[in-house]
Amino acid sequence: MMSRTRAEVARICRTEGLRRPSILAIATLAEMKSPNSSAQVSRSPDRVTEIARFAADASLDGVVTWPHEVPHVRNTCGRRFIIVTSGVQLREAGIPAANAITAADAIRAGADYVVVGGPIWRAAEPIRAVREITDDIERGLRNSPRRTFEILNPRPV
């Protein structure tokens, strides 16, 4: 399925003279319920990493996954593999630091892109929350072992 998707997108882009977009797999589905069962599918990092490896083997550009899975995926798939993460939180009073993964934590762990929704929607002061998140992203970038963060990642067609 992944290989076929990439091939068809590449074919259409060649036909239409378009630049091929980045194609990402959704590794977070590894943690959802099976459609034929009420049982939870494995939450292990191994399952998410396996899906990421399938995506890399199919020449997809990256995955979307939870922040706590980022280091596993980065170690397995390498630096050029795009990792998008959501589910980051603001560090707030009352939430133990070990339980809150911030945007800075995700970036330091190897995320290329961070999707933020909940902390802004739930905030009493959304503008303040956005400022806190952007400050947190800057801290993550300054303290990232990679020291680079590509806003637009140029990909060959």
Give an overview in words.
By secondary structure, the protein is α/β, with parallel strands linked by helices. It has one domain (20-142): Aldolase class I (TIM Barrel), CATH 3.20.20.70. Helix content is 41%, strand content 8%. The chain has helices at residues 2-16, 45-57, 70-77, 103-109, 118-121, 126-142, and strands at residues 24-26, 62-65, 82-85, 113-114. The chain has a four-stranded parallel β-sheet with strand order 1-2-3-4, covered by helices on one side. α2 (45-57) links the parallel β1 and β2. The longest helix has 17 residues, at 126-142. It is globular and about 50 Å long. It starts with a helix and ends in a 15-residue tail after the last helix. 26% of the residues are buried.
Summarize this entry quickly.
The chain is an alpha/beta fold and 157 residues long. It contains 6 helices and 4 strands; from the N terminus they run αβαβαβαβαα. The chain has a 4-stranded parallel beta sheet, with helices on one face.
Q: Round the mean pLDDT to the nearest integer and report it.
A: 82
| Oligomerization state | single chain
Radius of gyration: 17 Å
Q: How many helical stretches? A: 6
CATH domain fold name: TIM Barrel
Largest sheet: 4 strands, parallel
Tell me the span between the first and last alpha carbons: 20 Å
What CATH architecture label applies? Alpha-Beta Barrel
SSE order in H/E notation? HEHEHEHEHH
Strand order of the largest sheet: 1-2-3-4
CATH class: Alpha Beta
Residue runs with pLDDT of under 50 for 5 or more positions: 149-157
Helix content: 40-55%
Strand content: 5-15%
